[in-house]
């Protein structure tokens, strides 16, 4: 796979707030306890991120149809955005549900998805996924194990849930161009489901102090860029709620030695696209929307097409001008997309518009929401 070939085998030690040694990957690890230098001249990189993969029963049935009735094939669903995802130096998705096994697959309210989704994510070009969501405990510890096992087999890294305490304390670090990128992930809740007995570390829950400490630990261990995925917000609300904006302000204000601890925040959960905003000099995507979902019903019980609208975020990072400096976002873009529930396909709306499809009202609505907090003035543009 294109995405898989970009990841290099390595070993790097990271100690998160929980306190145990953690492993990531790199060719030449720094000396123990010393971060790798952010040397000028290293190549920059492009990061692409997308919203919730939420396979309702209709999505599972469609994947079975696309597989010819034997097994499940989710690759055709994602083929329309592979041209955006695969060229990125690092691409991150949000896997909202856990995986089932042996045909025991279910949709809402307790999701168990076919593990073949992992293969489709890899084939599309995704390098990693956040796995912390309100559905992470839908099938307990076994659901988490099956999900992470399948992602491992497909070569897709993951952050936010864990099979062991050691794994829970292990930062996910990926190679992105000339940088080491740490990916951390957290969720506001697990729909009231308790952590599995003896596994309080199974899913990362939102805790401001812990997020900051995890980010600082990753940085101390050599991460050049720290990306935080957060499953948060109020469902069906276009505007970010006060908890989102408050946490975004606090996290982006956190610094060490004059350098921000977090370089990018990626939000999921609301089911609808939400604004992008530069907060304290750091880009925050409050909500990317659902990349894959069945026909969505809003809080009023009526079908709401916004639940099938989303964006791909694309940020191009430039290396620092001096050693130890911050990797800056040189270009910020969003790509509007839509999941066509009738065709069972993710659609790049700008490309569809160029082909003559009547999608301008949907594209423009997404654009207006994304830019609703002044992101255009900070340089955010709509990409192809």
TrEMBL record:
Residues 1-20 form the signal peptide. Keywords: Lipoprotein, Signal. The keyword Lipoprotein applies. The keyword Signal applies. SMART domains: PGA_cap. SUPFAM superfamilies: Metallo-dependent phosphatases. Residues 46-295 form the Capsule synthesis protein CapA domain. Transmembrane segments: none annotated. InterPro entries: Capsule_synth_CapA, CW_Biosynth-Accessory, Metallo-depent_PP-like. Residues 23-45 are annotated as: Disordered. Belongs to the CapA family. This is Lipoprotein.
């Amino acid at each position: 796979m294109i995405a898989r070939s970009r990841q290099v085998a390595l070993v790097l030690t990271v100690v998160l707030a929980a306190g145990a040694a953690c492993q990531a990957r790199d060719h030449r690890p720094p000396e123990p306890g010393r971060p790798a230098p952010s040397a000028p001249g290293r190549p920059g990189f492009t990061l692409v991120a997308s919203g919730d993969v939420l396979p309702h029963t209709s999505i599972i049935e469609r994947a079975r149809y696309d597989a010819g009735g034997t097994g499940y094939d989710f690759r055709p669903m994602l083929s329309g955005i592979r041209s955006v995802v695969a060229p990125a130096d690092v691409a991150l998705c949000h896997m909202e549900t856990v995986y089932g096994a042996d045909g025991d697959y279910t949709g809402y309210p307790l999701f168990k998805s076919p593990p073949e989704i992992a293969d489709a994510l890899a084939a599309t070009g995704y390098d990693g996924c956040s796995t912390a969501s309100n559905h992470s405990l839908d099938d307990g510890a076994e659901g988490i194990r099956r999900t992470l096992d399948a992602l491992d087999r497909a070569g897709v890294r993951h952050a936010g849930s864990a099979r062991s305490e050691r794994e829970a304390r292990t930062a996910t670090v990926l190679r992105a161009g000339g940088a080491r990128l740490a990916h951390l992930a957290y969720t506001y809740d697990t729909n009231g489901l308790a952590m599995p007995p003896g596994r309080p570390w199974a899913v990362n829950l939102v805790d401001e102090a812990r997020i900051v400490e995890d980010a600082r630990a990753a940085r101390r261990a050599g991460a050049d860029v720290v990306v935080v995925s957060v499953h948060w917000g109020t469902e069906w609300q276009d505007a970010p709620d006060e908890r989102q904006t408050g946490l975004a302000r606090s996290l982006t204000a956190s610094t060490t030695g004059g350098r921000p601890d977090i370089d990018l925040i990626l939000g999921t959960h609301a089911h609808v696209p939400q604004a992008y905003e530069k907060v304290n000099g750091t880009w925050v995507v409050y909500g990317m929307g659902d990349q894959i979902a069945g026909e969505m019903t809003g809080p009023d019980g009526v079908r709401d097409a916004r639940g099938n609208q989303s964006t791909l975020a694309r940020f191009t990072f430039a290396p620092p001008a001096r050693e130890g400096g911050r990797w800056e976002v040189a270009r910020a873009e969003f790509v509007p997309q839509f999941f066509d529930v009738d065709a069972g396909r993710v659609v790049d709306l700008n490309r569809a518009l160029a082909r003559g499809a009547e999608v301008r009202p949907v594209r423009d609505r997404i654009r207006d929401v994304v830019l609703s907090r002044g992101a255009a003035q900070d340089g955010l543009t709509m990409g192809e």
